Amino acid sequence: MRRTSASLVAGALVAALAWASSPSSPAVALDPSAGVADLTQDLNQILSDSRLTIARAGVVVKSAETGEELYATDAGKLLIPASNTKLFTSAAAAETLGLDYRFATSVLSTGRKAGKVLTGDLVLRGTGDPTMLAEDYDALAAKVAGAGVKVVTGKLVADDTWFDARRLGNDWAWDDETAYYAAPISALTASPDKDYDAGSVIVAVTAENGEVKVTTTPDTGYLKIVNRATAGAETDVLIERQHGTRTVVVTGTVADPYQEWVAVDDPTAYVSSLFRDSLTRHGVKVLGRTVTGAAPEGAKELAAHESMTLGELLVPFMKLSNNIHAEILTKAMGRKAANQGTWAAGLKVTTDFAKANGVQVINMRDGSGLSRRDGFSPGSIVQFLSAVRGKPWFGTWYESLPIAGDAERFVGGTLRSRMRDTPAAGNVHAKTGSLTGVTALSGYVTSADGEPLIFSIMLNQYLSGSPKDIEDKIAVRLAQFSRTAAGGDPVQLRTTDPGPAGDLECSWMKPAQC
């Protein structure tokens, strides 16, 4: 289910109205009431889990109503946030770009049209729209044909200069280069479906009549497919693009249909290929070769496409924890604020916004949290979550956060299989985070007394056994929290199986299990 920006705002304002920081010493009741003493005891118990013995755990809980810090341990320590970084990127984008912001993609001509012949170049210009599908480029090609153009004597120019030419983020691991969640960033890109994983192609395999058939979505000849797979009794297949190439090698055995999302090597070249193919299908012949470059001043617009609004894009971005959206929005913020579509300019926008809202411990290397050098403190995250509650866009942003236990992908998102059938289900709105040895959960929950709480849980450097159930236990306990509970009352720390995705976010487990 996809919601419009307006419906998100309307549905969220009531929740936002119900919806507040400094690091302090851990493991003691910060409020003398029995309820807070019980909460402190229970959270200490949860965090005594043996998996955290050699790990680092930072947890902060704060009342959004009173500003009281109800619990804190290692509140000021710099920890790896993983996708909790997106809390800062998305909020800064809402503030800087506005919820009505749209990405524009256009086709321009640089010459004169005489009859059906365009004497000059045809320019495809992008501004980073991550929601562009192959069908959208096809629609642009149809508009060019509809304008009466049948022959272009010049070149097809791909103008991706809205962003710089740097494709991969700071500190991204070399072995993630072909993974869809670390796809290269360009102002001209395309997604294979409406999860909008820009810069990737879906490669699917099926066994038919004893042979393995390989197909792509969208149908494209951009990738070179080397099919070495064989039909077998089970599906044990590897689909992998070779580093620095367009070659995808398929090996193993196939019994049942299977698919993988694969990052392309160069989004601009990939999109140029899609667009040229679409022009050909619509009877438009470009005589020149495909090149990259900026559209000259005075080029005339032949066709244009606008994306959904940022308010609408926040849903797939935050619910599914889309890394590429985060990086594209980072560069878009840099372009708007400093006329530079770079990581450096965009990250300055986000960090300046965070600091203006009281954040003290912050180190941002990218917009998504894929870098292991990103760093925040749980105290800073709670401070930020408190500060943004007063923003006019908060309602829409709050509703874009994953909601615990809601099975609908575009509602529950990365929390759809967690905390089901507990007081946290339908209550916790929070952002997940996952890297090897790193997990985080930060957001909002309403207590048993109806008191809105803000929390951040950051667990780093554990070696084995996912501790996401520890996050869930804490969130459930916060949903059960009552200031009036008598001391010594039993507390049920209930959690459920995290679901088929296990300890990973849906953004890391792309197939149907998410």
UniProtKB/TrEMBL annotation:
<keyword id="KW-0121">Carboxypeptidase</keyword>
<keyword id="KW-0378">Hydrolase</keyword>
<feature type="signal peptide">
    <location>
        <begin position="1"/>
        <end position="20"/>
    </location>
</feature>
<dbReference type="GO" id="GO:0000270">
    <property type="term" value="P:peptidoglycan metabolic process"/>
</dbReference>
<keyword id="KW-0645">Protease</keyword>
<dbReference type="GO" id="GO:0006508">
    <property type="term" value="P:proteolysis"/>
</dbReference>
<dbReference type="GO" id="GO:0009002">
    <property type="term" value="F:serine-type D-Ala-D-Ala carboxypeptidase activity"/>
</dbReference>
<dbReference type="Pfam" id="PF02113">
    <property type="entry name" value="Peptidase_S13"/>
</dbReference>
<protein>
    <submittedName>
        <fullName>D-alanyl-D-alanine carboxypeptidase/D-alanyl-D-alanine-endopeptidase</fullName>
        <ecNumber>3.4.16.4</ecNumber>
    </submittedName>
</protein>
<keyword id="KW-0732">Signal</keyword>
<comment type="similarity">
    <text>Belongs to the peptidase S13 family.</text>
</comment>
<dbReference type="InterPro" id="IPR012338">
    <property type="entry name" value="Beta-lactam/transpept-like"/>
</dbReference>
<dbReference type="InterPro" id="IPR000667">
    <property type="entry name" value="Peptidase_S13"/>
</dbReference>
